[in-house]
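I'll show a record.
***
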Amino acid sequence: MSEIFLSGLNESQQKAAKHIDGSLLILAGAGSGKTKTITTRLAYLISIGIDPTSILTLTFTNKAATEMRERAYAMIGSNMSTPPILCTFHKFGLLFLKFYMSELKRKNNFIIIDTDDKKRILRTIEKDIPVAMLVSEISKYKNTLLTPTQVKAGAELKIYQQIADVYEKYENYLLKNNLVDFDDLLLLPYKILSNNEALAKETSGKYQYIMVDEYQDTNELQYKLLRLLCMTHSNLCVVGDDDQSIYGWRGATIKNILNFTEHFENTLVVKLEENYRSTDTILDHANQLIEHNRDRLGKRLIGTRAKGDSVRVYESHDENEETRKIILDVKKLLDSGVRGRDIAVLFRVNALSRSLEEGFNKAGLNYKLVGGMKFYERAEIKDLIAYFRIITNSYDNFSFKRIINKPKRGIGKTTVDKLEAKSVELKKPIFEIIDEFSPDELNAIVGKKNSRTLKVFLASILDLKDTLEESKMRFLDIFEDTFDFRASFENLPDGFERQANIDEFYGYVRDYFIQNPLLELDNFLNEIALGTEDTELENEAISMMSIHASKGLEYKNLFIIGMEEGFFPIVGDGSDTEEERRLGYVAFTRAMDNLTCSFVHSRFYKGKRTSLLKSRFLAESGLIKGSLMIQQQSSSYKKGDLVQHKIFGMGRVQKAVKAGKDFKLTINFGGTKRDILSAFVEKA
């Protein structure tokens, strides 16, 4: 029976599926049949008599777990007395806590809170620090096993001292009310197992065969939890692709997969390099691009399909010309019988969807934004529109309530409710009440401090009305100087994206005024309102999405826009060029038949039109000729080789690991071990 399962696999897939005991790393390239391999391995283990209850398979999403379960059951049937556990990390944590929460002297009738609950609790503890920042930092602390005390001890800046205090109060609140958040579903099982060796051995003995999907996305906590689950055996099989590790910004550490063979001894490494998705031409460019990364285990996708058409590169003056070219291509595809669901447009920065959405709306093309909000539905853009509506129409109570405390100025819900009640009573807009009431009259409604804040806010709006009449081009600068709206997103985890959206919006407003010098701000707002009517047919809509959202998907016809330095790759403080390059590799390998990459010479950037340089990735992938940082091609290195370094002198190689076009060498220089890239040494 087991041979039937294996007959549909290639040689490498079969080798992985038939491996039983000992640690196994399946390096699965994009489109190489990863899910098919891991589900076949699950079915194979059960078919040779392994107890299903001793097999634990962990995934990152419910969707992946469901797909694997359906595929495995289709092979082996679902009539087992007790099926194997196949679920997300967090679902496994929940099941574990239901049995062992008492180990922490807590009852097992705990309640799991979602992100909104978490935000509400944190707002009651701290009102000045942005709640998104608190959520992000506390999650980061939990996933790196840092207690409030440890955070406090290591915090150099005052803001992180304050966050540590909030973290401590938040943890006490959860404990007192027997609540657990999403991160606790991993952290608490880890605490229980690390403090109870007998239970850890018992649990490890129960799950004799463990499989983990998307291992390149695991974080420090997940790795340490897996170590405990493998305390009594080494039967851990992980599947992943170091070249598709793109979630460093949310805590995933690529080192888990890069160092797997060091973490778990005698690991069998199986590389799945045969790609069943993309044409040879597309794969060739993807391979060329990713080979520029040094921090990788090294593999090369091998095509199983025809060579295919050349990858096209579009060069445009600006984003409007870029959009026109893509729309023209999309229309040709649709006219030739291609379905909308087989076409997608990807971008690195979400703000780039704005010009696409405008163009597609005007052209009458159905589209959907996958894994994200449409540009004008994003909170920061809706806030700006509300501001502009108040400036053009003071009677708009709805918009007034939306922005009265954005950015925060100490006006809470109670104050807004009082103003709204007075507005209904007098049949006057809130704006007019603030304008017409004397300070004493306003004090009586909302208190002295809030009264003063509201009067200042009103004066600012009136000044901006005057500015708009005098100079539409100066209006946005004065608006930003007045309210520091853009700056208010500075320290948020997604601040870069939000600020990029704001810059894009400001740029679009300026461009509108340049193109339509006789029209006013209210004309612009009306045009937006008309353009955002939702008429898409979901099933046949063309997909637009960020590259992050595209992971795991595939499209016959793919466009990647915004291939300029600063947009893709993102450059500057905090950016990781190797992770950006992995994103490029992910983007290229979403394409099945046709791929088009696009760059422009200028975009609206930081609120103004800026000249841009084409992305280095275009040259690195061999799509265009351009200057590259050429590295000397390294010859092969092995343990025992004698090498010379210009500073450290003579040394002997103790370990050599392929890293892109280089080797990462562990060298003993007279008793001192150093990790050096082979491009910086010569054979002696």
Summary: The CA atoms of residues 26 and 239 lie 5 Å apart. The chain has 29 helices and 23 strands.
